[in-house]
């Protein structure tokens, strides 16, 4: 039998390290250490783990950071008051409110309250508009991190057909804007797309941001395509760390020309990009 084909592994850590190095150098040039304020509500295990990672990486990269870990019961008014305090504090360069927020919080009102110049997540409608008019300022970290990873591995989306599965505000939509700005032909597919397989098989670059473990199977992928797996599905296990599964089935590596692994693919890019956004905000504010 013929040897199995295996896609090139697009490992996140080398790309993330390169971005963190650039970020640390820029941070060191500023008169004051850039400061990131992180806000989270409640004890969702994924959010606790992500926030701890962001805080630790910030400090390792020569930034300072504060975590405001508030109880689940925090009211809309209390959260707004904290955001206004951080907006007015000139020692704070970046503000990040970890999502998802509890049910009783109006997320849109919270995101609107963050000073757009300190909005390192790029979720404020002002920053969304800047991205979609091709004048990007702060751009959501995960899709911006995917762009850095593609560039790191010499993959230029210009002129290519890109299919994104998923239309979230955090990944799918901003990913589409960034790729359009980079001259790709972009299709955004989602749970209501008819004959999804026919759509995804058109992709030169397929980006999976669905949130369902191993959703993308080899029959959905054009041979030779580049596959970017943004999924982090946590399989909780008794007495052990949760197992992380991507949105892409590992067998897709036998069809794709290149593919990001999970873990160790897009994940590390998100935090690196967050720190990049924080340093960029601090640079702007120092002008
Ligand atoms: N929840 C999942 N991803 C993100 C992110 O990039 N930023 C924030 N604030 N919350 C998230």
From TrEMBL:
Keywords: Amino-acid biosynthesis, Histidine biosynthesis, Hydrolase, Methionine biosynthesis, Multifunctional enzyme, NADP, One-carbon metabolism, Oxidoreductase, Purine biosynthesis. Residues 140-285 form the Tetrahydrofolate dehydrogenase/cyclohydrolase NAD(P)-binding domain. Its EC number is 1.5.1.5, 3.5.4.9. Pathway: One-carbon metabolism; tetrahydrofolate interconversion. NADP(+) binds at residues 166-168, 232. Residues 11-121 form the Tetrahydrofolate dehydrogenase/cyclohydrolase catalytic domain. The keyword Lyase does not apply. It catalyses: (6R)-5,10-methylene-5,6,7,8-tetrahydrofolate + NADP(+) = (6R)-5,10-methenyltetrahydrofolate + NADPH; (6R)-5,10-methenyltetrahydrofolate + H2O = (6R)-10-formyltetrahydrofolate + H(+). Homodimer. Belongs to the tetrahydrofolate dehydrogenase/cyclohydrolase family. PANTHER family: C-1-TETRAHYDROFOLATE SYNTHASE, CYTOPLASMIC (PTHR48099:SF5), C-1-TETRAHYDROFOLATE SYNTHASE, CYTOPLASMIC-RELATED (PTHR48099). Catalyzes the oxidation of 5,10-methylenetetrahydrofolate to 5,10-methenyltetrahydrofolate and then the hydrolysis of 5,10-methenyltetrahydrofolate to 10-formyltetrahydrofolate. HAMAP family: THF_DHG_CYH. This is Bifunctional protein FolD. It comes from Deinococcus antarcticus.
């Amino acid at each position: 039998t013929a040897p199995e084909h295996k896609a090139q592994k697009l490992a996140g850590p080398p790309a993330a390290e390169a971005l963190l190095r650039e970020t640390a150098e820029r941070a060191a040039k500023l008169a004051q250490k850039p400061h990131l304020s992180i806000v989270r509500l409640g004890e969702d295990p994924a959010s606790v783990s992500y926030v701890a990672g962001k805080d630790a990486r910030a400090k390792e990269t020569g930034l300072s950071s504060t975590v405001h870990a508030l109880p689940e019961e925090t009211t809309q008014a209390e959260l707004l008051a904290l955001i206004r305090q951080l907006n007015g504090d000139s020692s704070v360069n970046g503000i990040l409110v970890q999502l998802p927020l509890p049910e009783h919080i109006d997320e849109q009102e919270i995101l609107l309250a963050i000073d757009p110049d300190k909005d390192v997540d790029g979720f404020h409608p002002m920053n969304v508009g800047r991205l979609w008019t091709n004048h990007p300022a702060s751009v959501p970290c995960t899709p911006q991190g995917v762009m850095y990873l593609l560039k790191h591995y010499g993959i230029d989306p210009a002129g290519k057909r890109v299919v994104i599965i998923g239309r979230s505000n955090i990944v799918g939509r901003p990913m589409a804007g960034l790729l359009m700005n980079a001259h790709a032909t972009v299709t955004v597919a989602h749970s209501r797309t008819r004959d999804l397989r026919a759509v995804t098989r058109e992709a030169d670059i397929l980006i999976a941001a669905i949130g369902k473990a191993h959703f993308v199977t080899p029959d959905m992928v054009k041979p030779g395509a580049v596959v970017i797996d943004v999924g982090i599905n946590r399989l909780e296990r008794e007495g052990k760390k949760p197992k992380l599964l991507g949105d892409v089935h590992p067998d897709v590596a036998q069809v794709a020309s290149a593919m990001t692994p999970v873990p160790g693919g897009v994940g590390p890019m998100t935090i690196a990009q967050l720190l990049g956004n924080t340093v960029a905000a601090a640079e702007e504010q120092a002008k």
